[in-house]
Amino acid sequence: MVVVNNKSCHSRSGDVKLLQPAMAILLVFVVGCVTSVPDEFHGTVVKVVDGDTFDVEGLGRVRLADVDCPEMDTEAGRAAANYTISWLFGRTVWLDIDDLKGRDDYGRWICVVYLDENGAPDPEMNFNRMIVDSGHAVVRDFTDNEFNPADWWNHSSLQPGGGCAYVGSVKSNKYHYPDCEWAQKISPVNLICFSSPSEARSKGYTPCRVCKPP
């Protein structure tokens, strides 16, 4: 709240003129504080709209940054929504909100989302990365926000051979052992992790003919 001393308004005209520039600067500062975009927020997910969109209590509608899920009128879209429900609905999430735009054209907050671990964000549980790794979303690297999706896979444990039983690419239909020469060529933004051959096959992937996984 800004408190103005009313006595100042009845000062001599010269004093009022001197105060005007200072007040203008103060108003700009106050407005800037009100409209600035927070860079962190945490709250409970109270509604899942689809795989990449949900509502957080106390904030409103959130859109996962730089990922895209199928539409809800498709079987894949409903599967993506169910994946998000299973991980996020009713749970606390931590949001890194985009500093460049904040909201998209639909008024949704653009965020990278982290799951909660003992009252703090878990850097290993980046949900934007998780939903891509699950095969329910693809990367869409929009340049009008602050995020670089490649950074989500930069941790060594998330590289091919460092935490995935089998790997694939969103741009192919083959799955590999993590140390396969072809797996090593997969860009981090295209990487998908599979826990088993059956999971890879269920998503339409076939074994690599070079490393020959089961």
UniProtKB/TrEMBL annotation:
UniProt signal peptide: none
A Pfam family the protein falls into: SNase
SMART domains: SNc
Location of the TNase-like domain: 39-140
Superkingdom per UniProt: Archaea
InterPro entries from the UniProt entry: Ada-like_dom_sf, SNase_OB-fold_sf, Staphylococal_nuclease_OB-fold
This protein's name: Nuclease (SNase domain protein)
Organism for this UniProt entry: Methanothrix thermoacetophila (strain DSM 6194 / JCM 14653 / NBRC 101360 / PT)
UniProt lineage: Archaea, Methanobacteriati, Methanobacteriota, Stenosarchaea group, Methanomicrobia
